[in-house]
Amino acid sequence: MTMTSTNDAPMAPAQHPAPRPEGRRLRDTLLLLGLFALVVAGLIGAAAATGWEETKAQLAKLSLWQFAVLLLLSLCNYVFRGLRWHVFAAKLGLPLGWGANFLHFLGGFAMSVTPGRVGELVRMRWIRRETGWAFERTAPLVLVDRASDLAAMGLILGIALAFSATGIAGGIPVTIVALIGALVVTRPVLLDRIATVGHRATGRLPRLFARVRRAARSLQLFSAPGVMGATAAIGLIGWFAEGYAFHLLLVWMGADIGVAKAVAIFVFATLAGGLTGAPGGVGGAEAAMVALLSLEGVGLETSLPATAIIRVTTLWFAIGIGLILFPVAEKHSKARQNALEND
């Protein structure tokens, strides 16, 4: 009889450890810094081409209290949208208080620079740790929140265009696309039907279409007129606050083009940047803002610093808040997870 050594037994394939959360966070942080550096380099290059003296003169017009006002208006947007997230979470039945909901919402801003902002789904991970709810149960929360943003921004853009003396090229199509997207996501029957037709037409991705149908049925919780009306008003106030900040900035820099035009340009550029799919709309939003301001007769010596300042006090301010609260949310969710497992 031939003896077989245990050392001759076939070896199991090597197991590759899953990437550590710290590694993913470092990667996202480096991506954020790289994008920021590219935008800053582009703006510096454009400012150098148009003359440093004019740009510096425009920046010198602003004082610290004016920067503080811009940040406060941005913070107003985040607080109101955080309140809306809390309302939706409560309507979904999540057993979390307002503190946890606000922590999740604001901490998720750290991932705003991921493509399509999919990194903000980290909020779902925190919720799963703290409640045990699977992604399928919390997906409607993400869908209705994003749809509410589209609806609010589409309405603001449409109203601003109506009150503007001159229109913005492409403004109406972007408004229509935003409102249609919001309508589809917030109408459960329509979304369910689209998923059914899509599955029948393609015959593929059955699990994906099944998840969309389940999410559509869950969205019925938010379709009540009272809920949608209240959350729509909250979103309108929040996004208008940032658009009004852009108006104030232009006034302070001596380029008053009117509230309606300033708000329309800010919202249009934000939506256009998002439609490019670039992380945080970086690059596309800035280019659209500078181009639209130029069409309104605002020189590059003003439009460039105005664009840089408003993006720093909105998008990058939100990311800064997210980076501060991200580790807090991680620690809190892990503590809650351990508590649930020990019960």
UniProtKB/TrEMBL annotation:
* Transmembrane region(s): 30-52, 64-80, 92-113, 152-185, 221-240, 246-269, 281-300, 306-326
Q: Which residues form a coiled coil?
A: none
The UniProt annotation puts the region (Disordered) at 1-22
| Keyword Transmembrane helix set for record | yes
Keywords assigned: Cell membrane, Membrane, Transmembrane, Transmembrane helix
Question: What's a GO cellular component annotated to this UniProt protein?
Answer: plasma membrane
Give yes or no: UniProt keyword Transmembrane helix: yes
Q: Where in the cell is it found?
A: Cell membrane
Q: How does it sit in the membrane?
A: Multi-pass membrane protein
Specify the protein name: Flippase-like domain-containing protein
